[in-house]
Design goal:
This protein is mostly helical. It contains nine helices and two strands, in the order ααααααββααα. Helix 4 packs across helix 5.
């Protein structure tokens, strides 16, 4: 007996639906326990290109070697790292711009992008930077406390379930602390979430347990 002609399309539809549901379940599972698959967790495009390789990169590699806290000025003082206002950018780019001579043998610059920064300043128009690393609103993460732990205290070697997972010698220079969670930002032209680094609750709890820090719910949750 030949199958009903209507059954064949229904079977195909069923297979397609099953494949789509299976794909969604896999993506959600991977995203929940680690980071979204390649391409799905990429950082959003920024309104103006800001190459950290130029600003924070090592001078021997063509960067300026600017310390993270020079721009993210609240990172050693409070909860949020904060991003600089356009006025802060013009402290330097009032001189390093399309209208002034730039020694391009020392550092690679994009004069068009710099001019956009200067134009924003003259137009009294802020730069709406897009957030790259985002935590849920009910999660509290105080940068100052974590940087203080990593940069002060007696000499010791600890294992951090972050970054490469290799033992870390403390205290470490302030300029190196950001890379523990955020990766080698100084080596990123476009800042992206650190590959393979899960900023999930489990990672935070594992780190607190490893370092005998409090794991009470109210430590991190409002």
């Amino acid at each position: 007996m030949l199958p009903n002609a209507n059954m064949i399309p229904l079977a195909i539809v069923g297979l397609v639906v099953t494949a789509i549901v299976g794909f969604v379940v896999i993506v959600l599972a991977v995203s929940w326990f680690s980071n979204p698959p390649f391409g799905l967790g990429d950082a959003p495009a920024q309104p103006i290109a800001f190459p950290h390789t130029v600003h924070a990169g090592a001078p021997e590699e063509g960067g300026m070697g600017i310390d993270c806290a020079f721009c993210h000025r609240n990172v050693t003082k409070g909860a949020a790292a904060t991003v600089p206002a356009v006025e802060n950018c013009v402290f330097c780019h009032g001189q390093i711009n399309a209208e002034n001579a730039v020694d391009r043998t020392q550092v690679s610059v994009d004069l068009d992008e710099i001019q956009r920064v200067v134009d924003r300043f003259h137009d009294d128009n802020p730069i709406d930077w897009e957030r790259v690393h985002r935590l849920p609103d009910h999660v509290r993460f105080v940068h100052e406390a974590h940087i203080r732990f990593l940069t002060s205290g007696p000499e010791r070697t600890v294992s951090l379930p972050m970054g490469t997972g290799d033992p870390v010698d403390l205290p470490m220079p302030a300029g190196e602390t950001c890379s523990v969670c955020h990766g080698d930002v100084a080596g990123m032209t476009e800042v992206q979430p650190q590959a393979g680094q899960s900023l999930k609750m489990g990672t935070c709890v594992d780190c607190h347990r490893e370092l005998n820090a409090a794991t009470d719910c109210t430590i991190c949750h409002k």
